[in-house]
């Protein structure tokens, strides 16, 4: 487990705010780079600003998607990027308002034909992720799920022909193509597109802090700062 703490001056909170960071990464929202030991990303920046304003001690705990969710249920971490549709027990958590919208798309390597998605097509997905609009298709094996440990691995598998399509957040795809896969030419399909938004899930004892965070998000959105945070990482 990797634990990184950021100390704000005059810390008043007895318990630090611990954010579970996905491993290997979840760009552009939270990720590590070889050049920096501390995490970066839109949500990291958002919580750093919020913690400074609230005089909270902010810590980052790195774990995989499944392990982080379990830590959240147990109260070992305070928060994690999760949507109610993604988790096993949404009734055991509380959720922030939507922070930033995104769409999940099927991406494929760019080609001139418009072939329909065929039965038996392989779809690269992220390990431990839940995809509500694809669950029945995977369960019936109409489409075949091929898991990758992270989004970068997912696109690499698509590039190497290990799957026919990759199912991925559009913002994450844009970030990866711009920084790690500039040679990759992709097209997105409208089939099975899902609309959602990035949210933070909290352990219930953090309800008072979550209420203040929601107000903080509203303020940043109204002032345009939230969109600025996004554009710091994603240029579509």
UniProtKB/TrEMBL annotation:
GTP-binding recorded as keyword: no
Record-linked SUPFAM superfamilies: Periplasmic binding protein-like II (SSF53850)
Keyword flag Nucleus: no
Span of domain Solute-binding protein family 3/N-terminal: 23-235
Pfam family, one: SBP_bac_3
Protein keywords: Signal
Protein family: Belongs to the bacterial solute-binding protein 3 family.
Protein name per Swiss-Prot or TrEMBL: Transporter substrate-binding domain-containing protein
Species per Swiss-Prot/TrEMBL record: Bowmanella dokdonensis
Native organism taxonomy: Bacteria, Pseudomonadati, Pseudomonadota, Gammaproteobacteria, Alteromonadales
